[in-house]
Amino acid sequence: MAANGDVPGSLPCAVLLLLLMAFMACHAEERGMYLVLMEGDPVAFHRGSGPLEEGKRVDPNSEVYKAHAKHLVDSHDQLLQTTLDSGSYNKLYSFKHIVNGFSVHTTPSQANKLKHAPGVTLVERDRGAKLMTTYTPQFLGLPEGIWSQEGGDANAGEGLVIGFVDTGINPLHPSFAYDPTNPYTSNTSHFKGTCEAGPGFPASSCNGKIVSARFFSAGAQAATNLNTSYDFLSPLDAVGHGSHVASTAAGNPGVPVVLNGFFYGRASGMAPRARIAVYKAIYPTVGTLTDVVSAMDQATMDGVDVLTLSIGPDTPPEDTMTFLSVFDIFMLFARRAGVFVVQAAGNQGPGPSTVVSFSPWAVGAAASSTDRSYPSTLVLGNGQRIGGVGLSGPTLGNGLLQYKLVLAKDAVKVNGTFPRTAQYVEECQFAEALDPLLVQGSVVICIFSTGFFNGNSTLTAIIDTARALGFMGFVLVANPNYGDFIAEPLPFSVPGILIPRVAETQIIAQYYEQQTYRDQTGLAVRFSGRAAIGEGRISFFTGRAPIVSRFSSRGPDFIDKSRKPVDVLKPDILAPGHQVWAAWSPISILDPILSGYSFALLSGTSMATPHVAGIAALIKQYNPSWTPSMIASAMSTTATIVDNLGEPIMAEGYDIGSLYLSTHFDFGAGFISPNHAIDPGLVLTSGFEDYISFLCSLPNVNPATIRAITGGVCTQLLNHLSDLNLPSVTISELRGTLLVRRNVKNIGSKQETYLCSVIPPKGVMVSLNPPSFTIVPQGTQDLEIQLNVTQAMEDYSFGGIILTGSLNHIVRIPISVLPVSV
User: Signal sequence span per UniProt (predicted)?
Assistant: First the structure.
């Protein structure tokens, strides 16, 4: 007979309660996405697929390929089934081409089981992926340079395929149209892509210019509930970013840029005849690293020549070295497969060690200005002219007629029932807050205040208010309480101007108060001030350039989240990334102010990255046998470190408008020079085994870990990390004397003699051996670089090695050193 109220054959209530609590605790864990790497060769480097020659492509349709791919997928499924609890996970992708692994959506406790499972080499939680966000062909000298050598813009980039992992593409844009009167003549049989149709993206979107388009959404769908009205499960770009990046690298030549009926010129990609392969992995709602690396795996399998990553994690990995993160490992194996990989350096400048491009096998692009600007002017009734920013037409009368000037705070309805917050009172965000009789036909002054500072207010709302109430124009001025703000030229559909400096704002305020009459309570009763807004859409080509953009992330490179410096130069190269015109998606879901437009003027290292990608395609076209390492070296050693005035390149600092003398941690090797990069004279190259030696030489690294993650064996260590054969020398801690080695190769067709010279960093003496050398075509030469500390320094100092050839080749190798003790 049961005692104490227990049911016969059942567990006691206390035990049931404990089981229930355990069950609830397990299910209370918030699921996340985890990237898992496995031991064993992926298909691209599987010994059964043929020779393991670096850069050798495998046929994804071969029986050997298909069999090994199936084996890898089956092994992933079996591991999950035998390691994790049933129902506790959802496998999102199997990676099998350049990396053996998978992505899984599960709980932290289940993911922890995977860390200890046999065959697992790395488990990393998905950190998410973010966007790193015309005239540049002329600024780079392409039309009269490399384009002319490759048959003009009608042939520049012919035969190359550039892959873009981004937000998709706008297939209807003229930058991506196919011209049947100018058919492609080159063979791209090395590329095997496909076209995935879906909402807004019919199969016909792959038109010959766009040769492949895919989308990756398993990570995004696991992360959150996607909005079907704009998170399209197709390669269609609802953001605009992916279209902008693709057209910058490979958009058709001479496409008219027209916004609001105004012609801004013609846009061309860097390699206008290159083909475009689209891999959508970022959605308006979310971006996941899971989708990004799966797209990278597919792009490499398809056979892209160049991989463009204007996206990626914008923070260092939490639990591993920067070089051993899943994202960086995927880039390593893409490079091993023969793909030139370029990634955005990041938009977290100008502070030190803010780069998010870490590894020597990927080229990190920093962003600069060009010498083009779009100035606008506010003309006050007393004749004073205040400079500002805004891509808008003038007020009626072409800026010659002047209109009543009204401060928004003075036009607020006295008896309104709205909140008396800055957004209502002074930021022009809500039409219902303003008296229509006071603002109609007036130039209205809006103030950059709390709402803008906190990111809640928008220029779009000002334009909507201006339209609704019939402003003649608007002026958004800086607020002394918040200081100067950063203003970029955005297209305004009504006359408008941004005045981002407090000093100019105070001039406007002084004039306004002199012309405004108030009663005893301070209420404005008469407005005598007048103003007009001038034309802001005309470009001017003056001033020094390039200048490293304030937002562009800086070096030095670092090894982990503690930001301990490491001996690799980052960023690698500087390219135009400030105010770049390129294609856009009219949907523009994240930027309503650009909604309806087919072009956008954007800034970011996202914009610098496709410049480098397109130029890499041009170099590859001119030198088909070159490896990615050779292309990267050619870019680096031919880069320029002076601006258009012949002065050292400057960089924007913390204070808006401030400049300082830039260093290699701002611009890498310098500003990219495509016309010189096609014929650099010498190159410094590194291959997969060199990168393995580098990884094995890192401090506190277990060789077994390197072998497990990369398959490489630590048989040969570097004498010093700085001995990796990069086209730069970086030493994060120089004590006394250090001998660094480099090897150069003559890729020219003639014998050449080089004289070696040095610009020594402060506090360091540098000597070269040999001081000169003669090198035959395809010959190599070892260089010994001895560095001796002459004075300890508190910060890095910078210099360079210059190899001057008898056939006019000039090879520059930047030096960055922190001399800590004599």
Answer: 1-28
Q: Which residue stretches of 256-411 are H helix?
A: 289-302, 326-336
Helices 241-250 and 605-622 meet at what angle, rounded to 10?
A: 30
Confidence band for 183, pLDDT divided at 50, 70 and 90: confident
| 3-state SS assignment for residue 309 | strand
Active site residue 720: no
Assess if CATH 3.40.190.10 describes domain 130-372+543-682: no
Q: Give the residue among 605, 598, 378, 576 at the shortest CA–CA distance from 491.
A: 598
Among residues 677, 599, 684, the alpha carbon closest in space to that of 638 is found at 677
Residue type, 222: A
Catalytic residue among 126, 166, 328, 666: 166
| HSE, side-chain direction, 13 A CA sphere, residue 355 | 37
Is residue 241 annotated as part of the catalytic site, yes or no? yes
**How far apart, in whole angstroms, are the C-alpha atoms of residue 344 and residue 748?**
31
Cα–Cα distance for residue pair 446/764, rounded to 1 Å: 54
**CATH no. of 728-822:** 2.60.40.2310
pLDDT of residue 294: 97
Answer whether 681's CB lies under 8 Å from 748's CB: yes
Residue 357 structure tokens = 């491009």
The pLDDT confidence band at residue 125, using thresholds 50, 70 and 90, is very high
Tell me how far apart the alpha carbons of residues 806 and 302 are, in angstroms, rounded to a whole number: 42
Q: Which CATH class is domain 375-538?
A: alpha beta
Which stretches within 135-209 are classed as H helix? 136-139, 146-149
Active-site entry in 241, 244, 676, 809: 241
Full DSSP string of 55-86: T----TTSHHHHHHHHHHHHHHHHHHHHHSPT
Of 449, 606, 633, 728, which is the active-site residue? 606
Tokens coding 391: 């891509």
Task: Examine domains 20-125 and 375-538 and report if their fold is the same.
Answer: no
Q: What is the pLDDT of residue 7?
A: 36
pLDDT tens digits along 674-717:
999 999 999 999 999 999 999 999 998 999 999 999 999 999 99
Q: Are strands 810-821 and 729-735 parallel, antiparallel or unpaired?
A: parallel
Residue 664 token pair: 């290699």
pLDDT per position as a tens digit, 634-685:
999 999 999 999 999 999 998 888 999 999 999 999 999 999 999 999 999 9
**Tokens at 815, concatenated:** 């030096």
- pLDDT tens digits, residue range 467-526? 999 999 999 999 999 888 888 888 999 999 999 999 999 999 999 999 999 999 899 999
Check: CATH 2.60.40 for 20-125?
A: no
Domain ranges of the chain: 20-125, 130-372+543-682, 375-538, 686-724, 728-822
